[in-house]
Amino acid sequence: YEKRKSTVSGDMGNINQPMLKDPNHIPDTEYLMIESTYGDRDHDARRPDYVADMAAIIQKTLDRGGNVVIPAFAVGRTQEMLYFIREIKEKKLVTGHGDFPVYVDSPLAIEATQIFLQCDMEFVDEDMQKLIRSGVNPIVFPGLKVAVSKEESMAINEDKEPKVIISASGMCDAGRIRHHLKHNLWRKENTIMFVGYQAAGTLGRMLNDGIQKVKLFNEDIDVAAEISALPGVSGHADKTGLISWLQAIPEKPKMVFVNHGDPDSCESFTKCITDEYGYKAFAPYSGTRFDLVTGQFDIVTEGKPLEKKSPTQETPGEEKHYVNPVFDALVSAGERLLRAIRALSGSPNRELRSFTDDVDRLAEKLERYKKS
Fold it and tell me: Residue 283 in 3-state DSSP?
């Protein structure tokens, strides 16, 4: 194993972002695991003006007496939001509200912010280095408040002054942000501003998709607040960025494992780098095992790994199931087809009958092949 070189990309950072440098490239690797959050699409070619867009949302919300609630990941995204708000205040882009209060309500985010402030300058980008050398603290400003204890967190929602609240988690599935949503979603003067990727099935995604009522702490909450998304903000590289990073590895890895993405995105990126760029790639599912020594997939059944058995341990008549990446891709395509079919609910009957005929013909073709 010592001679095997394997690399995990982790969350591939986006380029041209505030504070942090662009992702580094690796010299070589035999096996690579790479994320695929945006593996099926690119970010907007036009780089948004984050500061101006954010200032406009804050201005509009404070003018109508509301709060701006920002679900943000504790590490990285929260600090970027503070970076933008510092600039907004410095340039006086929000007027009529003085040094409006900005609360960071996440113990982890507060600790992470302290680490950012202690970070060696070689790890931050040139713009942030210039700020620090000029004596400016890039993520601290007048009106910034923190809430560490439960009592401090609860007091935020008792304060009626219009404010900005930044809290984790970024997809609203856990943490203190859910309490702030409970107190703010039902008020039409408020804004919930999303500043990061929202995975399918999360509360954040459902709010982005326009759900009208949610259940929080066993209470039904009407969604009356404005739901907004800061365009273009993402800590993840897009499809082009992922491919560029991958191609910078001098010699193609023996295998690229694609993970950390919605199924469609993961499958699309795997197919892209296989068909268009000649990589040997596979999107493993839960339970898939790959032996780095033999370079082969191990025994699995229905996505769950089986314990290896010696010949004397084999159960008579037991069938071994080996993972075939091509067959697995076919199964994934079938699952995608089923998801697409379910999404057709409510479509006109004429269209449904036409699609039914198409699916029946495909099923008959597969059944004939199996019998032949």
Answer: coil
C-alpha span between 266 and 199 (Å, rounded): 13
pLDDT tens string 60-74: 999 999 999 999 988
Sheet containing strand 281-282, strands side by side: 6-8, 31-35, 255-259, 281-282
107-118 and 77-90 helices, crossing angle to 10°:
70
Q: Cα(172)–Cα(253) distance, rounded to whole angstroms?
A: 37
**Strands annotated E in 78-205:** 102-105, 144-146, 164-167, 191-194
**Mean pLDDT over residues 307-321, rounded?**
35
pLDDT in tens, 257-270: 998 888 888 899 99
Distance in angstroms (rounded) separating the CA atoms of residues 94 and 344: 44
Tell me the sheet residues that pair with 31. Answer: 6, 255
Of 197, 147, 139, give the one whose Cα is nearest residue 172: 197
Residue among 95, 18, 17 at smallest CA distance from 55: 95
Going by their DSSP bridges, the two strands 164-167 and 102-105 should be labelled as: parallel
For residues 228 and 219, give the distance between their C-alpha atoms in angstroms, rounded to a whole number.
Answer: 23
Task: Take residue 265 and report the two structure tokens written for it.
Answer: 């995105």
Residues 6+ apart with CB under 8 A from 158: none
pTM: 0.65
SS3 of 65, please? coil
Average pLDDT, integer, range 100-122? 84
Query: Apex CA 198: angle with CA 61 and CA 196, to 5°?
Result: 55
Closest by Cα among 209, 187, 188, 190 to 198: 209
Distances (CA, A) of 114 to 118, 120, 127, 242, 311: 6, 12, 19, 30, 57
DSSP code at position 239: H
36 contacts 266 by C-beta, under 8 angstroms? yes
Task: Give the tens place of pLDDT for each residue, 70-105.
Answer: 999 887 888 889 989 999 999 999 999 999 999 999
E strands present in the chain: 6-8, 31-35, 68-71, 102-105, 144-146, 164-167, 191-194, 213-216, 219-222, 226-229, 255-259, 281-282, 290-291, 296-297, 300-301, 304-305
